[in-house]
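Class prep. Write one:
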Amino acid sequence: MTTKRDLAILLQLNDFSMDCKTDLKYPKQFHSHPGYELVWMMEGEAQYSFEDKVYQVTGGQLLVFKGSALHKVHVHPGHAYKRCVIHFTRHFFAFEQEVYEEFQRMLDRLESPHFLLALEDRDAGVFQGIIDRLYKENQSDDLWGKKGAIQIYLLELLLFVCREFRHKRPGTERSVQGPSDRVDMLEAVLRELNAVWNTAWSLEGLAGRLHMNKFYLCHFFKKEVGVTIQQYILQKRFHEAQKLLINTDMPVREVAAAVGFVSDSNFIRSFKKQMKTTPKHFRESAARQDYKL
């Protein structure tokens, strides 16, 4: 049986985390998690795919999004990926913070809960300074007031983001340079997949609607995203199943049908293989830990 600690690790339940690194170790599947994520790209280029948008994030750009949005990063061969990734949840702040509340509202007002900011050199320097202070405090030993200091620096960072957003009104642009034909094509494929993910879809039908050769379609998607079309469909189904298990009291057999499984036994077996726990235990553990998507 999955323990609370196991599930906490599995579901990424840390209230705050920060990683600055250059390696190519990152989640290889579409996934979601509680809270918010900020990706500050210092050098290189990475592609972040959501269900409805694809962003080409390059040096000097900041991607901001809700962790509950299904997402995946993919770095094409030959590209550097120097970044700082910050994740935090509402539980990190002990009491209501005006800046944090405005940050929440800002994302909630968007049609999709993600946006990309391109910072000019001067602004990038200011932002990097906040990042450096936050990282230094987070990496330090258990100094007196460490959590309070991290909260202060994080609020300063969110204040910066809110002001930049108000000034630039970035919306959900995919890149400063504008979308490429490749990104347009990938978004078209994602739109079609999101229209059929819980149905008895076929590759032939999908390719026909996209006016693409089915073999080229499979090759293109795997090359651009890093997973196969079938893997994406399965990861999307598990994502939607988690939301239903958390946010409703729908019986497991109805959840299975709602996300496209032909039988509840097949759903339970597949869910356990992917999540290392059964749907029932997942629902119970998520409720105990106030886990939200």
Residues 1-6, 172-177 have pLDDT under 50 and may be disordered. The chain has eleven helices and seven strands. The longest helix spans residues 146-168. The longest strand covers residues 36-50.
